[in-house]
Design the sequence.
């Protein structure tokens, strides 16, 4: 796919500038361009998922409710029974994940994002994380709230051995996001160009 969307991020740009830059590019995608990129990403993610789950025994997969032009990868896991969606219950605390299926009753979390109405919570073994921008070391840029960094840091401190899989469009890849102390790297990164990073077999841990 020709990446006519790629533009240069100014040297030394701060994170807010980088975030605005890539959100603007994502909003500018035509519906046809977005669909093509999303289909390619879902194809690569489905291949990774099929191969990975053949070697492991995951149960819960944590997805996300797509917004602001994010990739929509829910179709990849449509046949998987054990799916969950996040909920932000308060600022500056880890996310909780609630079981979800199509047609389940939904409510808005504290930021107005749909989440399952049920009170039950689960901790997914595979966590799918949306990326505004990313680098090949697995570091990501989100919306600035720190929810996924906070969640993964808390889970890993408690011994979580799951896999964090970042998904984003290839034009949002940067050489180096210059991670900060609180940033938590993804184990896997998948874009419409392919699997960018895969250390899901525990090399990092």
Sequence:
């Amino acid at each position: 796919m020709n990446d006519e969307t790629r533009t240069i991020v100014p040297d030394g740009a701060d994170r807010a500038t980088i975030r605005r830059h890539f959100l603007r590019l994502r909003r500018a995608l035509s519906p046809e361009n977005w669909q093509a990129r999303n289909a390619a990403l879902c194809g690569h993610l489905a291949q990774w998922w099929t191969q990975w789950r053949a070697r492991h025994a995951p149960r819960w997969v944590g997805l996300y409710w797509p917004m602001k032009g994010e990739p929509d990868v829910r179709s990849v896991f449509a046949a998987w029974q054990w799916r969950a969606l996040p909920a932000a219950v308060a600022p500056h605390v880890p996310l909780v994940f609630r079981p979800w299926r199509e047609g389940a009753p939904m409510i808005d979390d504290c930021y107005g994002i749909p989440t399952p109405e049920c009170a039950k919570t689960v901790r997914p073994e595979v966590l799918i994380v949306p990326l505004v921008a990313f680098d090949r070391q697995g570091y990501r840029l989100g919306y600035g709230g720190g929810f996924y960094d906070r969640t993964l840091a808390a889970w890993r401190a408690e011994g979580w051995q799951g896999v964090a899989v970042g998904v984003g469009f290839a034009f949002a890849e940067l050489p180096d996001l210059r991670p900060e102390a609180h940033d938590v790297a993804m184990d896997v990164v998948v874009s419409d160009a392919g699997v960018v990073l895969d250390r899901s077999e525990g090399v990092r841990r």
